[in-house]
Specification:
Helix content: 40-55%
Number of strands: 7
Strand content: 5-15%
Strand order of the largest sheet: 3-2-1-4-5-7-6
């Protein structure tokens, strides 16, 4: 998610606020330029539920950030999964921000459900299976009476004039909704129209099978004329949450490697399908099966594991949620009050000025031994190129370790995972 902009008076209406936040984060060039036009198209496209599930591997984050009971975490919400996954490490606090009202409403729904649903079975039915009619009964009995006014208004509203209330998405497959869920569904549909079935990857019994089935049912899809055409259209990539700046970075990388964009995306799909066992890679399950492993419950996020529900109930009040940019929330926080920052891919969205403002606040709020983890669409970090050298003078990053984090990230959709470590107290 994008997350940096100048100070402004915030409107009370969540939809208006989301549009304002997105405009400030993304629209940093003239509307009369090609990028400016594409940026504005993207903010219009992005102003709705995008990620029903986050697509950054929390196990990599937890290791790279060295989360523990002393951790004071700052993170973007997205689907809200990451914050709840981090909660299982019993941190001291988690500050959550997001520009999108839908993502804010989703994590608040989850937090309310943790507190008021009767048990882990009901919680898994709601957010693990997410397709049961009885989920609506649970919502009315246990969740709805305890939601704050804005969150309630979001879930009680309709996404379209003739549509159903948003909360009913949990009765017919929540993870098939949102821009990303719908895009994955479109890929399945297009593949079948081309004579392939990418869901057959799920028939694999081992890593060798996964490669064989990928080569037979998935790889050829990327070689079809239609998919090649779509892969080179930035507006199509909006449904993956890829803004114009990220698309240009990926396009540049593919040209450097003398390959097409479809080849780059095919390789990332191959990593997702083939580099990790399917038994516990819930990212692959969502991509190729369009659901979690609801039978064995191994391929599910950590927060949905049966043995974690009591921890979530005990720890949930440590999560503090803000419909706000990263920079503005950091400005409101005390100096040296955080030691773990998770920026997802937000920095790809930022120009040099926005990135500088963000890292000025990172330096101010960072405690000794603080860590920052983020992803990029391409394979290089934007920090050294865009930031003044003095902002990074106390930070260290290990390129070999970053490559290892990137290879270990089971979602496999990013070009790079980077961790920066504070080696001395920052110069304020």
């Amino acid at each position: 998610m994008p997350a940096s902009m100048p100070t402004m008076e915030q409107p009370s209406n969540p939809q208006t606020k989301t549009k304002m936040l997105l405009d400030s984060a993304v629209n940093n060039t003239s509307i009369f330029s090609r990028k400016g036009l594409l940026d504005r198209l993207f903010t219009t496209w992005f102003d709705r539920l995008v990620y029903p599930q986050i697509w950054e591997d929390p196990e990599v984050d937890i290791q790279a950030l060295k989360l523990n009971s002393q951790s004071r975490i700052f993170t973007i919400s997205s689907g809200g999964c990451n914050a709840l996954n981090y909660l299982t490490e019993h941190p001291e606090s988690i500050t959550v921000v997001d520009l999108n009202e839908a993502h804010i409403a989703l994590i608040k729904l989850k937090l309310t459900a943790i507190k008021h649903l009767p048990d882990q079975i009901a919680f898994f039915d709601f957010f693990g299976k997410a397709d049961l009619k009885k989920n609506l009964d649970r919502y009315h009995a246990d969740i709805k009476p305890n939601l704050d006014e804005k969150t309630l208004a979001y879930w009680e509203a309709k996404s379209s004039y003739f549509g159903k209330k948003r909360i009913t998405q949990f009765t017919d497959g929540f993870y098939r909704h949102g821009l990303l869920g719908q895009f994955i569904g479109l890929i399945h549909w297009l593949s079948k129209r081309q004579g392939y079935d990418i869901s057959k990857v799920m028939q694999a019994q081992n890593l060798k099978d996964q490669q064989t089935l990928f080569d037979r049912h998935v790889a050829p899809v990327f070689e079809t004329r239609l998919v090649k055409f779509l892969c080179h259209r930035p507006i199509v990539m909006y449904s993956l949450g890829i803004p114009p700046a990220q698309f240009e970075e990926m396009h540049h990388e593919s040209k450097q490697d003398r390959q097409g964009m479809h080849d780059l995306l095919k390789e990332r799909a191959r990593r997702l399908a083939c580099d990790f066992p399917l038994k516990d890679n819930y990212f692959a399950w969502q991509a190729f099966n369009r659901s979690y492993d609801i039978v064995h419950r191994e391929a599910v996020p950590r927060y949905l594991k049966t043995n974690q529900f009591n921890t979530l109930q005990l720890e949930q009040d440590k999560v503090h949620v803000f419909h706000q940019s990263m920079t503005e929330r950091l400005k409101a926080m005390p100096a040296q009050s955080l030691n773990a920052y998770l920026f997802l891919d937000a920095q790809d969205w930022m120009d040099a000025q926005q990135l500088t403002e963000l890292w000025q606040e990172v330096n101010r709020t960072a405690m000794t031994n603080a860590r920052v983890v983020f992803r990029t669409a391409g394979t290089t970090s934007p920090l050294e190129e865009k930031l003044p050298a003095n902002l990074l003078q106390n930070w260290y990053t290990d390129s070999l370790q970053n490559e290892l984090w990137t290879r270990q990230d089971r979602s496999a959709i990013y070009g790079g995972v980077f961790a920066y470590y504070l080696i001395d107290e920052p110069d304020i």
